[in-house]
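Thread: Newbie trying to understand structure tokens

Hi all, I'm a second-year student working on a class project, and my supervisor (Dr. K.) asked me to get a predicted structure for one chain before our next meeting. I've only ever worked with sequences, so writing a 3D structure as a token string is new to me. If someone could post the tokens and maybe explain what I'm looking at, I'd be very grateful. Here's the chain:
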Amino acid sequence: MSFSIKGKTAIVTGAANGVGLAIARHFAAQGAQVMGADMDEKRLIQEFGENPEAGEATGRESGGSLRYFAGDLREKLTIANLLSATVDAYERIDILVNASRQVLTTDPLDCQDRSVETLLEQNLLSGLRLSQQVAARMIRQSEGEDEAEKSSLGAIVNLSSIAAMRTHPGLLGFSVASAALEQATRSLAVALAPHRIRVNAVAFGSVMSASLRDGLRDNPQARTEIEEGTPLGRIASAGEVAEAAQFLASDGAGFVTGQVLRVDGGRGLVDAVAVPLH
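---
Reply by user tm_fold:
Sure, no problem. This is what the structure looks like when written as tokens:
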């Protein structure tokens, strides 16, 4: 069984920072042709250079490459442009990783609080629209291929959170959007199964991203609380989430669809931390 993604073409959203950036770089290092997408063009340039093709050398030893696309994927035209840019660069799309996500606190008793709407749009709907368009492209590009080639038509991986299964009133919007994303994952998995497109999700707890590192610097006690509330006793690295995403995107997971892989060190089983940090 192979977990290789070498030679596959992948779109990774949220690629300007954090877990999305780690996934984009990891996939390229594993030999995939990656289009990293994000609305933060300044950060994309900071990470990959002025030229959208500047990352071509990222996975050179393994045959991979990394380009970037800047745009607001909440806009339908931007989604169409992303697909066009990816196909122009790499000719096809085999993998989509919806890693673009935002965390906001919510005041559940404030009628003016718009965080639920904001996070449903950012963390659920934009990725759902992109998934639909990518799936349609995967189906079209399979026309004329024989059955052996069709056996693994494509893979979509969503990034969720253990907040989907926990009750944190201060993260109402984030929790609702995460839970909705997991249901969308299951629904799309069934709808796309006849087309041999698999849809899964990775739900994770605290990951040592730049934002979490900054938060722990200001509140060192929070690190102790997170570690003590995690059975494995530590905070995950972004690379560990990237490896889980690779597994779900690879042919080694060819009979896995509609599943949520929890990468949280067991924290979702016994979570004693009041507010999860990402």
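A couple of things are worth pointing out once you decode it. DSSP finds ten helices and seven strands in the chain. The chain has a mean pLDDT of 90. Feel free to ask follow-ups in this thread.
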